Amino acid sequence: YSTCVPKQRRTFPEDFIFGVSTASYQIEGAWNLDGKGENIWDYLTHNHVEAIADLSNGDIAADSYHNYLRDVEMLRELGVNAYRFSLSWSRILPTGFANYINKAAIDYYNNLINELLKYNIKPVVTLYHWDLPQKLQELGGFGNPLIADWFEDYARVAFQYFGDRVKFWITINEPKEICLDGYGSTAKAPMLNASGIGEYICAKNLIIAHAKAYHAYSNDFKATQGGVCGITFSVSSAQPLTSSEEDAIALEIHNQGEWAIYSDPIYSKEGGFPKEFSERIALKSLQQGYPRSRLPAYTEEEKDFVRGTSDFFGVNHYSGSLVSAVTSNNFVVPSFNDDVGVSYYTPEEWPRSVSSWLTQMPNSLNITLTRLRDRYDNPEIYITENGWSTYQGLNDDTRVNYMRAAWESALDALDAGINLKGYMAWSLMDNFEWREGYSERFGLYEVDFEDPARTRTPRKSAFVYKQLISTREVDHDYDPDSQSVMTI
Ligand code: GBH
């Protein structure tokens, strides 16, 4: 490190928000208690046990349904300004529909929200972090355009019951992971694997669902409740492998496929899907014998309805790669990968986490934020997730290194005038890492999943984050040891 000491001491602004993130299915447990309905992860983990790396499930998870007071105590220990968590749709609306509201769920979230406010911690609430009510999935889920109405109804319930105290709403977490992983492949529930088809139908229905919830908030709640409402995307950091024209094009197509297909309809001036990627899919579809593009178009009316429906840009940023052009394979079976048609490289020297997809690319956060600034005219940005995976154990130096690099990169972005307002680490504590179960750990706090009490213990990174928040400075020399005691 001594070779690249920052020129001057740099600090995060006083009003910069530091937080941590979690998601309902990954932490809550209590999968069938107090009237909760079944969701797609309950269904997958119970009926396809082998789909999860360690054959586990989220039935109990970190048991935050019973441990939320300890969770808030940990937030106070860290000294965060904000806690991003998600609501379980099927806990609040067990049928999926708004015909019946489960009082126990309202009580649970009220208790959590009130406890946060007692200590001046801002609740940042995600309405949907991947746990769709199973019945709605059987009706097509994000493959059915009616999802927009179902989601609006659910969102209205949340705004009505919690909006007097929640002033920061995120409609949907990571459209790409929902659509590509859930509908276009088997990486996430519902593992539909309608490759080259499902992800694109979902891409349109999901963003219209988001827009409906946004309009509901801005028409009927915003004036009295005074909060903000937006959406969060996963945006990795990509750079071209070479300076060739082909690789520059490859990078643009990669960006359009990975995130702009979801974010352009909301943030671009023109609205609708990004042009070049749409044209590629349309052309390939014809070559593959489809009578129309596999990517459904936005009508002019839909473009207008969706454009501008976010008060900020939420970014989940983890990994990065180098992108280069490949000659298209023209697979008989259509796929997103074939439609994008690029290949990815990860240099040997980039540190690797225990997640196959997660490496530490130098300066990756600033590269990502710069791209968003340039594409969308410097929107207000929140990092809503950023984190690193390890195995069990309290000494998580690789996470500390990753996070410090991310914070330096965020400071670079602030220096460059990027409108970055906050940073939320993924995750407060270890949790159910989807198809990886409990085999990959993302927590600042370790959770003992063998212990019925699900005891939480701070890792080294928790102390380091706490120090960053209190000093607003990245201190590369601070080295808390195993004797360190966490206090509020
Ligand atoms: C976040 O997604 C989620 O919001 C959160 O719930 C999750 O726990 C956290 O990350 C950690 O995974 O290289 O083809 O295997 C991060 C998005 C998901 C993007 C996995 C990359 C791997 C694609 N990432 N994905 S692949």
Average pLDDT figure: 97
Task: Indicate the structural class.
Answer: alpha/beta
Oligomeric state of the chains present here: single chain
Dominant shape: globular
The helix content, as a percent range, equals: 25-40%
Share of residues in strands:
5-15%
Name every ligand kind in the structure: ligand GBH
SSE sequence, one letter per element: EHHHEHHEHHEHHHEEHHHEEHEHEHEEEH
Number of helices: 17
> Which sequence of strands runs across the widest sheet?
1-2-3-4-5-7-10-11
Provide the gyration radius in Å. 22 Å
Distance between the termini: 31 Å
Main β-sheet: number of strands, strand sense, barrel status?
A: 8 strands, parallel, barrel
Task: Set down the secondary structure blueprint.
Blueprint: E1 17-21, H1 24-27, H2 40-47, H3 64-78, E2 82-86, H4 89-92, H5 103-118, E3 122-128, H6 134-138, H7 147-162, E4 168-173, H8 175-182, H9 198-220, H10 222-225, E5 228-234, E6 237-240, H11 245-267, H12 275-287, H13 300-306, E7 313-316, E8 320-325, H14 336-340, E9 342-345, H15 364-376, E10 381-385, H16 397-415, E11 420-426, E12 445-447, E13 456-458, H17 460-471
Parallel strand pairs: 1-2, 1-11, 2-3, 3-4, 4-5, 5-7, 6-8, 7-10, 10-11
Antiparallel strand pairs: 8-9, 12-13
Helix pairs in contact: 3-5, 7-9, 8-9, 9-11, 15-16
The structure holds ligand GBH.
Ligand GBH is lined by residues 23, 26, 173-174, 177, 234, 316, 318, 357, 385, 426, 433, 442.
Structure description:
There is one protein chain. It is built from 17 helices and 13 strands. The mean pLDDT is 97. The radius of gyration is 22 Å and the shape is globular. It is of the alpha/beta class and 488 residues long. An 8-stranded parallel barrel has the order 1-2-3-4-5-7-10-11, surrounded by 6 helices. A 3-stranded mixed beta sheet has the order 6-8-9. The chain has a two-stranded antiparallel ribbon with strand order 12-13. It binds ligand GBH. Residues 23, 26, 173-174, 177, 234, 316, 318, 357, 385, 426, 433, 442 line the site of ligand GBH.
